[in-house]
Design brief:
- Keywords: Chaperone, Coiled coil.
- GO terms for molecular function: unfolded protein binding.
- This is Prefoldin subunit 2.
- The protein is mostly helical.
- It has one domain: Orthogonal Bundle (Helix Hairpins), CATH 1.10.287.370.
- Helix content is 66%, strand content 8%.
- A hairpin with a 2-residue loop joins strand 1 and strand 2.
- Helix 2 packs antiparallel against helix 3.
Amino acid sequence: MASKAEADRMEPVNEQIVANMYASMRTELNQIYSKITELEMEASEHSLVINAIQPLDPSRRCYRMIGGVLVERTIKEVLPAVQRNKEGIEEVIARLNEALEKKKKEIAGFEAKYKIRIKKSDSDVKDDSSRKEGSAQGVLVGPASSSE
């Protein structure tokens, strides 16, 4: 009986509350999407750095930003740290993807329960077609100077 009373309190009272709950869930979903995108960009940057410094001499000097401070190290010291950071980022991305799938299922269940349908306006449809033409950013790595 207590669980039924709790379930009654959890149930939305009117359409406005249902709409607010749905909007909140969609906002959470969008936040997860944006965090995944941000972390994927960061993992991509780590990959670029790894690919740039891997073929170089391990005793060569390089600089690494640690907590806002630029620190001089050797490639031999920096490369494993950058690889560990990239692996950690990839693990977080995997966990966020799991959370994303759970949230999608939760939203789908909520939509089915309350018979929610999303109507797209004409301007939204036009915006979606223009989003496909994304811009890519790259990193330029110059040749190593021979003045060591």
